[in-house]
Amino acid sequence: MSELRDAYDVAVVGAGPAGLAAATVCARAGLATLLFDEQPAPGGQIYRSITTTPLKRATILGADYCAGTALAQNFLASGAQYVPGATVWNLTREREIGVSVAGSARLLTAGRVILATGALERPFPIPGWTLPGVMTAGAGQILLKSSGLIPEGRTVIAGCGPLLWLIAWQYLNAGARIDAILETVKGDGAASWRHAAAFATSPYLLKGLRMMLAVRRRVRVVSKVTALRAEGRDRVEAVAYRTARETEQRLPVDNLFLHQGVVPNVNLAMAAGIEHRWDDAQLCFAPALDADGGSAIPGIAIAGDGAGIAGAEAAQARGMLAGLAAVRALRPNAAVLEDVNAVRARLARFTRGRAFLDVYYQPAPQFRRPARDTLVCRCEEVTAGQIVDTVALGCTGTNQMKAFLRCGMGPCQGRECGLTVTELIAQARGVAQQEVGYYRLRPPVKPITLGELAGLPKNEAALRSVARG
Amino acid sequence: MFRRLPDVDGTMIEVIIDGRSTRVRAGDTVAAALISAGVLASRAADVSGAPRAPYCMMGVCFECLVTVDGVGNRQGCLLPVKSGMRIDTQHGKREVGR
Amino acid sequence: MSPPDVIVIGGGLHGCSAALHLARRGAHVTVLEKDHVGRHASGVNAGGVRRLGRHLAEVPLAVAAMELWHRIGDLVDDDCGFESHGQVKVAENDREFATLRARVDELTRLGFTHEELIDRAALKEILPAISDHCVGAIACRADGAANPYRTTLSFNRKAESLGVRFIESAAVTALARNGRVWRVESGAGRHEAAVVVNCAGAWADRVAAALGEPVPLEPIAPMLMITAPLPLFVKPVVGAAGRPLSFKQFRNGTVLIGGGHRGRVDRDTNRTELDFAGLAESARTVWDLFPVMRAAQVVRAWAGIEARMPDDIPVIGASSTSEGVFHAFGFSAHGFALGPIVGAIVAELVTGGKTNLPIAPFRIDRFVGRAET
């Protein structure tokens, strides 16, 4: 990592559409721009492996995916310094970044930081979800995009959300077998149709419908599933489900894919001290930001799905706005290619209609607050029952719960259990999720080795921080 | 269980999985390579010892932790395979210093 | 409801312990806690329970505390996660070893035998994983460690079972005399009692200032790190003579690394910020002392909010200005082990006006005349 300087004008974290767009804007305006990303190639999750996918038939993945190519190429040509395989594990209020690359850690600072760490799959805790052979739909998509691997044997996809239909469509294009789709949508008509008008004029409607109809023509879809369980000993062997009308049914499976939407990946933003609030429509915590993604911490902004789930095109627009704001702050006289108002209009266009999706695809309560015997914290193997019982003992907060039961203390740092724990505590106490809050997240937001830490270059600050006496 | 699409790019390289020489696709991550090689579980859960396998494939779930070239607890889904790499799934007691 | 006899300000371990011991003597106690019980230093410290290496003034208290710890279940109906595998302070060279020998000699002269000087061979026997360059150590074989949050909660629960009332989200905003009682205004309303006990930790100087006895308290944020689980390889808690270190492996295999490096703290917002350059120093210390740890993964770091006094020993005792007020704060990053005994001392002072343990060195007015006041 010797080519990394101690300071940059702008540091961007994440090489998805938001991060690529932000870094491109900044670099083209002449700012010393650095982009860190954990993956070996740009694209984030939605454009995963866009420059390296081994799939010869890009049509499998659809036209939307291919739109990422130009974005990645523009970034690679922009003059920004690109550091793949980099894990950012800390960000301070003074915009000091702690990062590791190839087993070596260092600290550096930036005048402005734009976090574009995107989204992750909403936890989908069902009994048996930790069995080998159970994966997220996103995991299946990654194996397809990055490795050209498709499931073999009996395959079921369960859950709700537009990505469910996308992966099913992509799998069918690739020739994979899908035995059933178990859809858990509540079908709460009244709530969603309030937003139907906006949705009807959004870009999402036609795309989504086409895909869904194409899948429904070829795959058995079970609707209004109210309960799910993965069964098996050392691996998943069957998925049991119930609907409003039927008693429990069982399907033998070799692969079970779960998906119930995506939520912002908050760990680095929260550890940096950015305030997050509960979003009642999207049922997750989202950061408090201004129109350009700026947080209350001067010089730190969030762009993309990490700012609020809105999809790839919105993410790109948000990235551009954050980048333009950074340019205005650091180099106000720089000429930029993008017109801020045009970008704002584009963002509005791509966020219109999301409200409908948010409400229609809201995961049902039993899939956010699972049955007692369900593992909630996968890392520390803590069940929903243990959490609810501990609330009854007087443990009223997420951090006390963590101290009591160790849930949230594993390496994933709450990414798979945090929302579930918040929801369970909120329900048990009869209060809102906002009042319960989320785990108090601390760095490193990803594990670093003692050796990496010990290898951090010494500086004046280190000598000063030693206690006297 | 996964299979490779027939018309997929990539050269095959040799790695050592749990002591066995195995051919995997260059460009795959360690986690994807294990899946393609039919290895079911990457590790055992810390508390119960139950088998665990990659769940998210994007660095979030930490189920894909394996030992790579002697260094334990690497997230396999973030590491591209390299020729000659030693990959060990993490079952049972880990040795101190790994 | 009749007014309490005693208001305790602060629901950390010392506040809960004082409340418990007072309740055992029949007092009606209300505890006012500004956040929630165990929220700050009490809940997030390294959990060390030691007599080893104590400031001489603290030694009698630590010795008395250790007796309580070994029977802690009798006091609070929970073992608090207390385990006794000893504490060891290693010397990395002959000069440090000579310092340790002088220390043991001094303690022996004063009649204390809990610290034992051990040579390289004996050290390797109890710490097989310690680096070969260490030449010897002091060992306190009956010392140990406990779970800080669980301990604080156990004192809290036991106190509640004896009738103590805990009120959370009740930051004290004003304290003043009202006739024969103290009137305490808080975020949870007004409370009055004849006696007030100041266990307000890193905020205790504000209570003291309101009583006309300001103290030079420094809020600090000692940093800690925890690793992913490792196979069990070390039983005692380990410190080093020549550099800050507190090193302990839990039953579940995780290793806690702490010992003196500080982050930044804002005690008005409960916010602490970690200083990774300082954590790097801790990592280098562990690297040198335990080579097997070099590939260990640090999964989280944190810092609690603690109070430090300039002489690194606490304030314990009656107020120097105000009748019916008692202090127990400023434990300077090593107050956890003293929790069980200090509460007993406070209860003795409140109910009988004196205590058998020597607390003169901890008097609140010892800072008068210092430049920092």
The fraction of residues in strands of chain A falls at: 15-25%
Kindly report how far apart the N and C termini of chain A lie. 37 Å
Coarse morphology of chain A: globular
Share in helix of chain C: 25-40%
Counted by DSSP, the helix tally of chain A is 19
The poorly predicted ranges of chain C are none
- Which sheet architecture does the biggest sheet of chain A show? 7 strands, mixed
Radius of gyration of chain C: 21 Å
Q: What oligomeric state do these chains adopt?
A: heterotrimer
Helix percentage of chain A? 25-40%
Q: Work out the radius of gyration of chain A.
A: 22 Å
The two chains with the largest interface, and their residue counts, are: A-B, 50 and 42 residues
What value does the average pLDDT of chain C take? 96
Kindly name the structural category of chain C.
Answer: alpha+beta
Strand element count of chain A: 23
Describe the protein's topology:
The complex is a heterotrimer of chains A (about 475), B (about 100) and C (about 375).
Chain A lengths: L6 E7 L3 H12 L4 E4 L26 H4 L1 H9 L4 E3 L2 E6 L4 E6 L2 E12 L3 E3 L12 E3 H11 L1 E3 L3 E6 L1 H13 L5 E4 L5 H5 L2 H5 L3 H15 L2 E2 L2 E7 L6 E6 L5 E4 L2 E6 L1 E3 L2 H5 L4 E4 L4 E4 L12 E3 L9 H19 L9 H12 L2 H7 L4 H4 L6 E3 L4 E2 H9 L5 H8 L12 H12 L3 H4 L11 E2 H5 L5 H5 L5
Parallel strand pairs in A: 1-2, 1-6, 2-3, 6-20, 8-16, 10-11, 10-16, 11-12
Antiparallel strand pairs in A: 4-5, 5-6, 7-17, 13-14, 14-15, 18-19, 21-22
Chain B lengths: L1 E3 L7 E6 L2 E6 L4 H7 L6 E2 L6 E2 L12 E4 L2 E5 L10 E4 L9
Parallel strand pairs in B: 2-8
Antiparallel strand pairs in B: 2-3, 4-5, 6-7, 6-8
Chain C lengths: L5 E4 L3 H12 L4 E4 L8 H4 L3 E2 L9 H11 L2 H5 L10 E5 L2 H16 L6 E4 H7 L9 E5 L3 E2 L2 H14 L3 E3 L4 E7 L2 E6 L2 E5 L1 E4 L5 H7 L7 E3 L2 E5 L9 E4 L5 E4 L5 E4 L5 E3 L4 E3 L2 H14 L7 E7 L2 E3 L6 E4 L6 E5 L9 H14 L21
Parallel strand pairs in C: 1-2, 1-12, 2-8, 4-15, 12-23
Antiparallel strand pairs in C: 3-7, 4-6, 5-6, 9-10, 10-11, 13-21, 14-17, 14-20, 16-17, 18-19, 22-23
Helix pairs in contact in C: 1-7, 1-10, 3-10
